[in-house]
Amino acid sequence: MGILRIAFYHQIHMISPIISLSHSLMTDSNLAIANLLFPNPSYTLEELENIYPNRTVSIVTRVSPSPTGFLHIGTVYTALLSERLAHLNGGVFYLRNEDTDDKREIENAASTIVNGIQKFGITIDEGAIGPDGSDIGKYGPYTQSKRGPIYQSYVRDMIARGMAYPCFLDEAETTTIRAEQTVSGQPTGIYGSYSPWRVATLEEVQGAIVAGKKYVVRLRSHGNPSKRVKLVDEIRGEIEMQDNFMDTVLLKQTGIPTYHLAHVVDDHLMRTTHVTRGDEWLPSYPLHVQLTEALGFTLPQYIHISPLMKTDGGGKRKLSKRKDPEANVEYFFEQGYIIEALIDYMLGIMDSRYEAWRLENPTADYRSYPLTTEKLPLSGALFDITKLDSIANNFLTKLSTEELQSQGLEWARKYDKELAKLMEVYLDLTYRALDIERHTEKDPRRFTKFSDLRGQLQFFYTETFETMKNAAPALPECITPEVRQAFVEDYMKSYDPAMEREEWFEQLKNLAHMHKFARTGEEWKTGEYLGKVGDIAMMLRLLLCASTKTPDLCYTMKVLGKEVMEKRLWE
User: Kind and range of the H or E element at 518?
Assistant: First the structure.
């Protein structure tokens, strides 16, 4: 396929037509109904074509989230793919707020989505991305709720040409129709003979308006339920599907357009050439092609991508907004994943060749990778946190200690304010603590994300150590109070912080062998010690750090210093 089949964009990506524009009938009655419903249109279609002229670039992509909740990681995945396809080909990538679902819209969700995508370093050329959500670009408004007169202009034209009609069915009538269809074994919905307002006269429409009846505007579909149509998807090739025959709602009673109408109109006027969206929209594909033809537009290339999945009980399921915290991108920000790691991980999902390219180009900017659509997964792409952690671990390992400290502090100032304050108060101590085992074999085990900093630093700060001490694990059973006292007394006499690790461990081992104790009656004397040197090391670890998991004990003790060690060992 190459990067994209841009040269073939102006071909019709449909093998057999769904509807014929010969069905378009500009009758006096249809025109009168259009004038009745929309007496003063804001635009003519010719004016809209002039307001939104053809672009000079060959590819235009978009991401079009709905501000109905948090920013989903799947939206970022789609945005990254669309942005890469556009910018690798000298094109334009824009963001459009699809806020036609007014009942589910959440306050400030639009700005949260924009900010979240931009946090990933994804460059948005146009959209409601300016200060206070203002538009940047010449093809706005980029928020659908601000484009009502545009949609109404097209709906008016469709009614005038007999391609759409007002439907005054109320909820009770719709329920009756669906019950009849169920009994007779017919598909449920409003279509054909089940839609009495398809053939309503001007007088009937006027009477309904005078009576104050509410209405929606429906597509007058000329599809055939017994017909199959063949469509083309950029990554799936030829797809055979049932023809759309439903008279789908285009405008709701409120005058707000449905997604079906709004995205087709907007993609045309904003001159979108490639539409990347989830494969949950595949069942609506025939409808959208039908609408595109009915409106007289050129069909963009559709790329229906598989959803992000996760393992669950031995199987896979779609990443859930309700069940999975990682569905929300804020989870990754809170955990402190480095953004470059998330980008690399998602690119690896999109193109299986990316991982090998990264190994050959470890320091290259991901933007230099020639991403294509050829390797996009057709089934559910597994979002594997374990794999992400491995990639994130590599990125943090590459950072210098200075970078780890400064970036970690920046993260902590937002997500762990107590830790940030301690890191700022103890700058030198923090640096030395973070520098333990840096760029050694053990380094990758310590840091995967910035939230790991607390676990690696908390025993160095007196303030957090005191809290940890109250919940510290018990000493090994063989470390009795007498063993502890005798060993600590000798150890602190001989401990030298200048010792390197090999010399330090040899000394620890020798002292452990010297203090072999066995109980005889009520007295303690030198005898057989039932423990091992590891028990002595664990005793030191627990007394000094109140944790069984710490960086290398020798270097941890160097960072703590002899004065702090003595205080903690004797408490």
Answer: strand 517-520
Determine if the peptide bond prior to 141 is cis (ω within 30°).
yes
pLDDT tens sequence across 84-114: 999 999 999 999 999 887 666 666 778 889 9
**Does the pLDDT value for residue 491 go beyond 60?**
yes
- pLDDT exceeds 80 at position 77: yes
Q: DSSP secondary-structure letter at 313?
A: T
The 8-class DSSP code of residue 233 comes to: E
What's 515's DSSP letter?
-
How far from 414 is each of 110, 280, 342, CA to CA, in Å?
21, 36, 19
Question: Cα dist. 185→149, 178, 194, 242, 549 in Å?
Answer: 40, 10, 13, 17, 66
Q: In this structure, are residues 526 and 474 in contact, taking their beta carbons and an 8 Å threshold?
A: no
What pLDDT does 12 receive? Answer: 33
Residue 483: C-alpha distances to residues 159, 266, 469, 509, 545 (Å): 93, 78, 20, 15, 19
Amino acid at 188: T
Q: CA-CA distance, 245 to 224, in Å (whole number)?
A: 6
Average pLDDT, the chain: 89
CATH topology (fold) of 472-570: Arc Repressor Mutant, subunit A (1.10.10)
* Architecture of the domain delimited by 6-10+28-148+253-305: 3-Layer(aba) Sandwich (3.40)
In 373-463, which ranges are E strands?
A: 381-382
Residue with tokens 């002595």, as numbered in its chain:
536
474 contacts 480 by C-beta, under 8 angstroms: no
- pLDDT above 80 for 550: yes
| pLDDT per residue as tens digits for the range 314-355 | 788 888 888 899 999 999 999 999 999 999 999 999 999 999
Q: Which residue has the tokens 């299986």?
A: 352
**pLDDT at position 415:** 97
Strand locations in 271-348, DSSP E?
274-278, 301-305, 308-312, 315-318
Render 14-26 in DSSP notation, one character per residue: BSS-S--GGG---
| Token pair listed for 348 | 């690896």
| Per-residue pLDDT at 531 | 58
Cα–Cα distance for residue pair 340/95, rounded to 1 Å: 22
Specify the pLDDT at position 132. 86
Q: How far apart are the first and last CA of the chain?
A: 70
Ramachandran area for residue 185 (φ above 0: left; ψ -120 to 50: alpha; else beta): left
Cβ atoms of 338 and 449 closer than 8 Å: yes
Residue 84: closest CA among 284, 464, 343, 309: 343
Q: What is the average pLDDT across 471-478?
A: 87
Residue reference for tokens 């039908």: 290
- Element containing residue 141 per DSSP (H, E): none
Strand 315-318 relative to strand 308-312, pairing:
antiparallel
Fold of the CATH domain 313-397: Glutamyl-tRNA Synthetase; domain 2 (1.10.1160)
